[in-house]
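=== RUN LOG ===
request id: a7f3
mode: sequence -> structure
chains: 1
length: 282
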Amino acid sequence: MDIKDFKKFHEKVLPEFNEFLNNKINSEIKQPVLRDSMLYSIDAGGKRVRPMLMLAVVYSCGVKLEDLHEYYDIAGAIELIHTYSLIHDDLPEMDNDDYRRGKLSNHKKFGVGPAVLAGDGLLTQAFYWIAKSSLDTSKRMAAVRILAHNAGPMGMVAGQMTDITKEDRQLNEEELTDLHRQKTSDLIVAAITIGAFCADHSLSTNLVEYANKVGLAFQVKDDLDDFGSKEDIDKNTFPNLIGEDATKQRLHGLVKDALNAVLKEEKFDKNLMVSFLDYFKD
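=== RESULT ===
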């Protein structure tokens, strides 16, 4: 492997991947308002953590950098799913947020109806991209199975339902962990495990453990980053429940567990997955 650092991998691959996303949506979506609404949220400034993790796993399994484009359909599908979930999360009927990453949320820019349909379009187009991928059938089926399981009513959507139906009471630590595992962690776990399947890497308990710990750590860090903000004060978050110091300790423990897990992985270049953990440093 030529690239050993996740940040450098991200910087190298992201521009081409962003171009792929925009070109594909522009060429496939003909309804102008729908296309503009979908692209508005796709291009809202996200770091593409989930598809980059998937592609980093593929690369870590030995796929050459120049061949990564063969996996863009699958990585793109993961990003479409993530983006649809953000559009719907911001809706008045859910979190009722007017802004996302410093820009007007989709429904404030285009209206509630177009935002709902943009989310619906991204969700369904994701599985179209997987189906049309050039990868062999077994890999495409694995991607569909994992993504549908982790992003649907057995994963992310279940977490979203818990979030909006129990926001009027304080969850205990176990309940909050389950909520975050479904709402945030499951899609990150999907990205990592799909990457392994697509690159013919035998999925091990170590890589799954790494994915689970990283997924939960991602949300714990997000809770810490938002701690003290006016919007966060009444929400179910780890700092609000157990305090800032205890939350930092929990984040440190999750990152340590993730590191220990991936270091046990065999027949797999560990450098990118280890360096990704720098994301969680203060």
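=== NOTES ===
Residues 33 and 55 are 31 Å apart (CA to CA).
Strands lie at 99-100, 103-104.
=== END ===
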